[in-house]
Amino acid sequence: MFLYFFIVIMILGCTVASKISLLILTSGISKDVESRGQHVVLLLFCICGPIAWNWFMAFMKILFGGKEWPNLLTVFILLILESAQTFGMCLLLFRILPSTDFFRGLLITFAICQIPSLLKVIVHEKRPNPSISEIVAIIMNIAAFLVQIAAIPFFSIGEFISEGNFTLLEGHNETTYVKTEFILSGTLEWELPVALVLISLGWWENYVSGEWSIFGKVTIPFKQWRSILQDARETSYFLVAPFKIGLTLLFARLLTNNSPFILPAAGEFNATTSEFSSKAEEVGVSYSLMFIQVGSGIICTYLAGLACKLHMQRTAFALPLTLAPPCALMVVYLQCEYMFLPAHWHVGGWFCGKQDIVSLLIPLICAVLLWLSYSITVSHIWFPESERMAKIEKLFITPHFEGIFPDFTLTLRRRRNDKEVKLTGFDTFRYTEDTYTDDVYSSKSNIIPQMYVCATMWHETRQEMTQLLKSLFRLDYVHCASRLAQEKFRVRDPDYYDLEIHIIFDDAFELDDTVDKYVPNMFVRQFVDCMEDAARSVVKGPITIAPPEKVATPYGGKLIWTMPGHTKLNVHLKDKNKMRHRKRWSQCMYMYYLLGYRLLGGKEADKMMDEYERDSNISYVRNRKKGKSKKSQRSRPMKSLFMKMDPEQYEQAENTFILTLDGDVDFKPDSVKLLLDRMKKNRKVGAVCGRIHPIGGGPMVWYQQFEYAVGHWLQKAAEHVFGCVLCCPGCFSLFRGSAIMDDNVMKMYTTKPTEARHYIQFEQGEDRWLCTLMLQQGHRIDYCAGADALTFAPTTFDEFFNQRRRWSPSTLANMMDLLSSWRDTTRINDNISRPYVLYQFVLMASTILAPSTIILMITGSYHSVLKLGTWESYLLSILPVIIYLGICLTMKAKYQIASAAVITAIYTVIMMIATVGTIISIVTENFGSPNVVFLSGLTSIFLIAGILHPQEFFCLVYGALYFMTVPSTFILLTVYYLCNLNNVSWGTREIPKKLTKEEEEEMKIQEEEKRKKKEGRSILNRLGITTLINEARDLIRSLLGTKVQETKVEEKCVQTETTTVEFERSLSKQSRKSKESKRSSKNSESDDVTPNGWEPDPDRPFWFTLPIYGNGPIKILPKEETEFWRFMIKKYLHPLDEDKSHKQKIKEDLASLKNNVVFIYFMINFLWTIITLQLQSMEDELKNFYVIQKYEPLSLMFLSVFAIAISLQFVSMFIHRWGTFLHLMSTTRVDWFKKIATEEDFVRFVVNEAQRLQRMEPAADYDDMPPDYDDDDTTDVTNNGSEQYDELPSLPATPIDTFGRQRRGHGPHHNGHDDVPILQQIFENRLENIHRKWKQGTLAFRYNNNNNNRRLNRHDSNRFSQRDNIMRQQMFKRSFKKYSGDEEAPKSIRIDI
Question: Which EC numbers does the record give (predicted)?
Answer without folding.
Answer: 2.4.1.16
